[in-house]
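Predict the assembly for these two chains.
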Amino acid sequence: MSFPKVGVIGAGQLARMMVPAAVDLGIELSLMANSSSDSAAQVAPYVVIDLNDEAAVLAWAKKCDVVTFEHEQVPAKAIAAMEKAGVKVFPSSSSFIYSQNKLLMRQKMSELKLPNPEWSSYDGGTSPLKFPLIAKTPTGGYDGRGVFVIADQSALEKLHSEASQTLLLEEKLNFDYEIAVMVARSTHGQAATWAPTLTVQTNGICTQTITPIPDVNEDLAIQAENIALAIAQGIDLVGVMAVELFVVNGELIVNELALRPHNSGHWSIEGSVTSQFEQHLRAVLDLPLGNTSLVAKWAVMGNVIGIQTDKSKDLYPPYLHLMARSPKLKIHQYMKEMRPGRKVGHVTMIGDDLVQLRSEVAHAVDYMTGAIDE
Amino acid sequence: MSFPKVGVIGAGQLARMMVPAAVDLGIELSLMANSSSDSAAQVAPYVVIDLNDEAAVLAWAKKCDVVTFEHEQVPAKAIAAMEKAGVKVFPSSSSFIYSQNKLLMRQKMSELKLPNPEWSSYDGGTSPLKFPLIAKTPTGGYDGRGVFVIADQSALEKLHSEASQTLLLEEKLNFDYEIAVMVARSTHGQAATWAPTLTVQTNGICTQTITPIPDVNEDLAIQAENIALAIAQGIDLVGVMAVELFVVNGELIVNELALRPHNSGHWSIEGSVTSQFEQHLRAVLDLPLGNTSLVAKWAVMGNVIGIQTDKSKDLYPPYLHLMARSPKLKIHQYMKEMRPGRKVGHVTMIGDDLVQLRSEVAHAVDYMTGAIDE
């Protein structure tokens, strides 16, 4: 039979969550892991290869029908080498670069006439933007890393000197809230979005998502989906992508792109007919995309983020209380050691009563992390 | 961390469908397979052990926190040996026997005052029941195997002589339709049913299920759930069980029991908040049971059953047409070679329009098997 093998660079929780979709469809996975203890390496076939070992990466990739990613920390030359050797890699290097380089992403959004904040590259000298501003290292940052609030010229110069690279400067927006749109696009150019998601932030980290966005202006939701579709087409996306957007006085501004399954789309596992993980596999295999409608009025996802340094924190005993208290709660365990600030799992609930869903999800997260004990 | 390891005897599609639930919850599986090509052995850790090799079974079982089954072909003495050695085995041998021995099952239903057909054991002599009747070999039969329609005394005597064992005789019911109720029960005695399912039969094989039962008398559905709960308690079930029932002139008659996840409950993967596979893991681990409500008005499941002898039938190319035609279709591929009469997969759709769901599911099954080509 011609069931394909999909190579996945990375074996974290995003690769782990591809496993159920792959098992259902009969698609074989081969993960490129850092170690046998990686989240997904515990549940799917993997190889341990240094991403900088081009020959080893290539030898592995050639055994796969298609190669994809679950994170952005992949050297561009490794991707280019695979493509040169005729390996099908999706997203392609020419698309993936917008996930890896924030400066190129801003240039592309401008070119596509999509809503950017005021922005500029910076190689020294007087700031072209007013202070305070946001400075970003164009590469290597994610989840808020590599992002700095800069108060004045001397702080900017200090950062530039320390970073020793061109910086991306952006105006500091006074935004109302942040949303994300998940979009998928296949090789044939078929594209589909899910309903836009409100990403509730706590100290700059997404702690909860609500889908669809409560009390949202219908036009704004459609605009957000159209922006996501325009980007997907504009960068020739193949796979799924998260488009993170700021809402500023009712206007949308593109914040960041992630060309992979994303935390903002975890709700889709239970909340949508087709999960982002199944859709990603369909897209990179050029299969027709699945329906993306919600199966409930609301889907609320809560991230379980480590709050203590006790690595021995046992995340299994909380199941007894949580499953008894919230029979509709769906637990996703990444099987990672708990560390402060580290995502070790998430929980999702779908239903009609948003207040109840948010409350039960928040309780589950706090009980799982040990923030509360009842 | 104290995440448990669940040993599963059998590595067919039922074990395969436990994998996504186990991955989500962080539960480790260890399968006892017949070979590396078994459906579930392709996607989860397994050992190949002969079930009759008691020492090997025991050594494996002792490494698991709990052992369960995905089929009934397990020698009773192998289960007893595990129990004697202190291994947690669920369902226990004293429950599981009702899944393995149809004569003991009838005796138990009578004892529990649950609705049996007219029945008798038979060791020779004049039939105590009127002809035509149904004769069954008490052990070893499933999916219609070991079940015979007997027209007269001489046919009965011939069968008894050939079978060389006590037979179970049952009146031949002129039933209106067949239904199934899935029920789960944990070590602590918490029990939960799903909505009863109509099992649509073609030539004695279930080809489609519809949940809930269309146009059903609400009292009948409640009665069916109560019968399933009474059996679960009466046999001290731990795990999930399918209770198959005949509806005869609006009355329910118990047909068969299967103490494991069952084809009649496959709809629950997409159609219920908690799938039968997650529930089975929860039950045998004595975790609180999940909510069993439907997430849509209807869930329709269609079995993909082989119709041709061409073992090279490739089940992947049909994805292109089926996914394009039915974006809401959920495909479950067991990764088994197609053989006539063999279940090689199933498809499920959930939604509001039962006529459309049944039509799309039937089309998908026929296209997948090659019965139609458009």
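Residues 252 and 339 of chain B are 34 Å apart (CA to CA). The mean pLDDT of chain B is 95.
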